[in-house]
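W.,

You were right to be curious about this one. When I first looked at the sequence I had no strong expectations either way, so I just let the prediction run and decided to look at it fresh. Below is the sequence, 377 residues in total, followed by the output.
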Amino acid sequence: MTADLQAQEYENATVLYMALELSNTKWRLAFGDGTRQRQVVIAAGDIAALCEELTKVKAKWGLSPEVAVVSCYEAGRDGFWVHRQLGKLGIANQVVDAASIEVSRRARRAKTDRLDAEALLEKLIRYARGERRVWRVVRVPEPVWEDLRQLHREREDLLTERTRHRNRLSSKLVAQGVRLPIGKDFVARLEAVKLFDGSGLPAHLKASLIREWERLQGVQAQLRAVEQAISELIESADRTQGVRSLMLLTGVGWVSAWVLVMELFGWRELTNRRQLASLAGLVPTPYSSGNLARDQGISKAGNRRVRALMIQLAWLWLRYQPDSKHSCWFQERFGGGSKRQRRIGIVALARRLLIDLWRFVESGVVPAGARLKVGVA
């Protein structure tokens, strides 16, 4: 049985449905077959107990031990290991985007784990029987791709942490009227710092600054290690061929190429440009009702890392690829406009550029008018 639910397989067949409401300490399992429902609670992560409850409900309802079982749970803290484990047990599971699940719009609605599990089970049955708009399913990456994504995400966290340490150092010094460059000789310069009255830094403040500096050095060392690991993979790994291809384009560096491949191009089965733009959250969201019609901006419902990256890459594209088709289009339509119009235009350019970069990776089609880096055939 494949992990993707097919409506024709379950519309008329006997099927056992199972919705999992996951929490940190316990899991609530909601079982149903279209007419009956049953809920039980097990310890979080106890797969043996889950199998035992499956066996019990099959026996209680007189179902065959080999009856097809389909399940679902909301994407969250537990990640994808539950999905993979259920797949090994022969259960067709779906990981659901929690934000896409339809809910009541009442101002005040009851919410409990029991009600949530019951609602999830109801929507699972509807989805399995063909109602594909009930929710959106999360595409689960292979373990190797999920592991590769850890590198640039850790780098992102380390950059944020580095900025935090540097800001703390600057803030503590500015509070004393001192503005000191944070360079390699930072600790040596502290000894020569004089306050407004000619005295040196207080002893505890100086010790605090030195400890903060040491933490900053630790973060920078980890950042260099992560970037070195990425660099080695780019040069040698088969799965990073797409990264090497993107780096052939002028204006596209290893950071942009790596993130695009690891988050989108490497493992997702993209079929068209609309799907690609939707995954990045770069599609428009119109509002039209009666005589009222307006644009609400882009959806921002996709991958936030790719969306932010593409906005930055679009600005770089204008700088390093000024003669390309997209750059000329932007300058003709938005170049003479206001700052607000240029910001709107750069989003449109980011969407067009993302589509062309995908085509370049998939088919080798160079974006119109784009230049390759010097020395590249």
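Here's what jumped out at me. The mean pLDDT is 91. And, maybe more interesting for your project: The radius of gyration is 27 Å.

Coffee later to discuss?

I.
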